[in-house]
Design brief:
nucleotide-binding, mainly alpha, single chain, 2 helices, 90% helix, repeat
Length: 60
Amino acid sequence: MAKAVVSFAVERLGDELIRQGKFLAGVGGQVKQMQTELKLMQSFLKDADKRQDDDETVRV
């Protein structure tokens, strides 16, 4: 009886670990994509800040 309970628990734990691993693998790609987008935004804002004094449309 105890062997069956332990076996069941190990199987469920293994399934959960696999599920969590797949989730975390997907999150890694999303984090990279967000980092790239934030860097692009940062570059855009730096450029806009530099142009602010020269171009009136940027000030608006």
